[in-house]
Amino acid sequence: MSLQKLLAERVERAGPIRVGLVGAGKFGSMFLSQIPTTPGVEVAMIADLDPDRARAACRNVGWSEERIAATRFVDDGERLAADDAVEVVLEVTGHPAAGIRHARASFAHGKHVVMVNVEADVLVGPLLAREAASAGVVYSMAYGDQPALTCELVDWARSCGFDVVAAGKGTKYRPHFHASTPDTVWDHYGLTAEQARAAGMNSQMFNSFLDGTKSGIEMAAIANATGLTPAPDGLAFPPCGTDDLPRVLRPREVGGQLHHKGQVEVVSSDERDGRAVFKDLRWGVYVVLEAPNDYAAQCFRQYGLVTDASGRYAAMFKPYHLIGLELNVSVLNAVLRGEATGATESFRADVVATAKRDLAVGETLDGEGGFTVWGKLAPASASLAMGGVPIGLAHGIKLNRPVAAGQPVRWADVDAGAESEALRARRDMEALFRAELENAA
Known about the structure:
Number of helices: 17
CATH superfamily of the largest domain: NAD(P)-binding Rossmann-like Domain
Shape: globular
Strand order of the largest sheet: 3-2-1-4-5-6
CATH architecture of the largest domain: 3-Layer(aba) Sandwich
Number of domains: 3
């Protein structure tokens, strides 16, 4: 049954779906822009540290003053989660510790959660998923964001009976981007700092897209939801266009560049010398699949799929994603079907804080997209074995030992300070899955 038919039945039976939005930044604004044209979905409350900014965001996306007046604005996401007017919570803050608090408050009050905050999901998502299941609510990735769209392609491929060889997304990448800071980021985007400020673009957030951190976080989320795994040394970012996906993203033993079959990987839209990749996938997602038999391989060719030379490896891809404009799909699936659009299941991948330059004793880490560290994808077992500091906790803590450029930051290298809810949750999650990882190894 289609979502639209289910929604019409729901509205007739119980009125519109009532959404609570936590965080009215760019992603949240894109979601808000769709509400006036989505009959049957209403935003009951919006929580933002600056409610007036949230009201301004609503005006900016075209909301009428009447709609704004009918919406409640608060400055506390936990208060929103507890309110009876809300049945599904969208966590869009991008702040890991806040995401954990808001998710748990939502579970405690029987609310579904769409976790747009992939930073929180990668930090402790496997634990939150189990807490949601115990509470009898849905804990979902955000449709429109690349992790959920990639998970959808993986699910499609497996449901059709294909082996998934690789899955992931595209991005703009060159090796020196790992050292990028908020002071250098706009040069790489071809903007001036003044142009970026005028557009309301946050330099640290955009730097996390560029320095490899966001790619590592999103691939960890996909791995933890699908069972695919990272290469031992993290992401390689091979330059690759859509025509070459089945050739490049196959295992090395058959001529490709993958460490192993069943891997997450990000492809670059830039060649290493800066030239644009032909038919790049910078804004999209992909899955590479293998024909299970000769007949299926013949069908690949007969129906025009681009394959490798053997004809057995092919790719399907989605060239664009519309992030918040597509978020209603998660809302409707959670409420009407009780299903997630991508769901964390286990702890298979992690993102470890890695020094951007030589770091000295006494320096304070400034987290995702900052001046000191970037987030490198790693197998979860390797992260635990090295005692790596996850990028989601690498903020506001001081080094007690020097760390050389390119090296992981370990818990032994830092003074973690007072124990926070986020740190406790992370330790609980590690304890929950440590035995499972040791057995798998």
